[in-house]
Amino acid sequence: MLPISESISPSIPTVTENIILEPIQISEPVQREEPSLHVYSRRPRVTQQNQPSEPTSDPLQELQKEKSKVDDLDAPIAIRKGKVMKNFGYRQGQADHTLFVKESKNKKRCFLIVYVDDIIITGDDVDEINNLKRLLQSEFKVKDLGKLQYFLGIEIARSKDGIFISQRKYILELLQETAKLGCRPATTPIEKNWKEKLTEEDPPTNRERYQRIVGKLIYLSLTRPDIAYSVSQVSQFMHAPTIRHQNAVDQILRYLKGTPGKGMLYKKTKNRKIEEFTDAHWSNSKSTTGYCNKFWGNVVTWRSKKQSLVSRSSTEAEYRAIAQGICELIWLDRLLIELKIDVNGQLHLYSDSQPAIANVHNSIQHHRMKHVRIDRNFIKSKIESGKIKLSYAPSTDQEADILTKALLRISFESNVSKLGMIYIHSPT
């Protein structure tokens, strides 16, 4: 079981590991050897006058030199710093510093992604992949684990239809740990209007256990956008969870009991569009933003997050969601450029809020939107540059709806299928 930190973010982060660009030919996880060098630091000598004497050399510089020696022996640190990979002719990504790219003269590419002490090598340049493995083995003690099938709790399967990723084993272990293997499955991960049942008189629950389970659910949501909203909601009460909050977590576990084998299928398609769907659910406190990005017809990033400010209207909440969505599109565009992938045409951004879209295209700023002028100017500048095209999508086609609110079963299942989630395992 992958250890999860007790320090949990109240939102669902999006990471590069969610992105699968095309069928992978070779993917090699690599493990490192632990360094045997230890670092010690000493205080300066003290004189009889109780004043520190001048050290013969700077202790901080000595400590930095020793730390540098450790980093040179530590394969992941050396790779992340880019020292080794730059010597191999690789360029470190700026959109994602764990990514290294090398393009040959015949336009073939090799990619390396490092996470702590695990590495994935992939690309269409087979000769360079083999050469890189030899180079890494000459510098560090590594272990070649063969074709990628399991990585950080994520299971990867290949077929003629595409690449399928899931966390079935991780889910079953979580259900066993929480004694939910024999529970009655739920059809949705969260009840509609569940927050209305919360009261100040609700008794508290075990906070450490609550944080541990929600932390594992947060990691699970990296491959399960169907639980992103519900996990984002329960993670907002880490400081003082109650029995009702624990019941909401149990609802997510009961939903996972009925869908352990559900995952994301990445198909090879002729679609070459980059699309993003943004949505917001207005609340009298802080609204919820949801967005998902589709690369060549496949959902690659998603997020469900509570907005930082209170919105005075649903239009304002949608406005903030569009601004956050544009930031994600800009990041994705930068990443694709570093991956040497040509982005033909515009980046398509869809929203189901006609008033918000009208405000973007309106040359006269309305007095009711003056307080969101920064977001408005940011959105307008990106739209006018021609790089991003903002269009209306009706609510029936809004794929980010599942990331902003609790839905009833029929609507929920319809939205899940739009995200490209399928079963390849029978429910337990």
TrEMBL record:
Question: Which CDD domains does the UniProt record give?
Answer: RNase_HI_RT_Ty1 (cd09272)
Region (Disordered): which ranges? 30-69
What's a Gene Ontology MF term here? nucleic acid binding
Q: Where is the composition biased (Polar residues)?
A: 46-59
Name of a matching Pfam family: RVT_2
Q: Which InterPro entries match?
A: DNA/RNA_pol_sf, RNaseH_sf, RVT_2
Segments forming domain Reverse transcriptase Ty1/copia-type: 83-192
Looking up PANTHER family in the UniProt record yields: GAG-POL-RELATED RETROTRANSPOSON (PTHR11439), INTEGRASE CATALYTIC DOMAIN-CONTAINING PROTEIN (PTHR11439:SF467)
Q: What is the protein's given name?
A: Reverse transcriptase Ty1/copia-type domain-containing protein
User: Which organism is the protein's source?
Assistant: Lactuca virosa
